[in-house]
Design brief:
Elements lengths: L1 H7 L10 E6 L2 E7 L9 H4 L20 H11 L8 E6 L3 H10 L3 E6 L4 H9 L3 E4 L6
Parallel strand pairs: 3-4, 4-5
Antiparallel strand pairs: 1-2, 1-3
Length: 139
């Protein structure tokens, strides 16, 4: 989880810095942080498209890719299998990321802070992805 906290420092989000680490066995196989897609302007430079929108709502307005998505996409881009992996992430994933987690075959999600998206819990529970809250790390 401490590594996820360090990865989160690369985030270019104005509201929330999130880092994600994918572990297969005891080996880190991928990392990700939230920020604009490659070649696109960062929110730090042009402002946030979700300014004034409450956390957990209207995520489709966000121009950034989430940390969990970026970790999964990096693994896919380089042909790294993440089936059965554990995902360490700063925040409980949103429902968009939960769908990717399920479809990628990730077995466990370990997170530090909750996130206000009730659909996520339904998605992960229905597919039996193990969820563990780890609040032992000070961030």
């Amino acid at each position: 989880m401490e590594i996820a906290c360090v990865v989160a420092r690369r985030s270019t989000c104005l509201h929330r810095q999130v880092g994600a680490v994918l572990v297969q066995g005891k080996q880190i196989v991928s990392t990700g942080y939230n920020g604009a897609p490659g070649g696109h302007p960062h929110c730090l430079d042009i402002g946030c498209a979700r300014q004034g929108v409450p956390s957990g709502q209207r995520s489709e307005l966000c121009r950034a890719a989430h940390a969990e998505q970026n970790a999964i996409n990096f693994a896919a881009r380089y042909g790294i299998s993440i089936e059965g992996a554990t995902l360490y992430t700063i925040h409980y994933p949103c429902s968009w990321c939960a769908k990717s987690i399920v479809n990628a075959g990730i077995a466990r999600v370990i997170y530090d802070e909750d996130y206000p998206d009730p659909l996520t819990k339904d998605i992960l529970f229905a597919t039996q992805v193990q969820r563990i809250r780890d609040s032992s790390v000070e961030g």
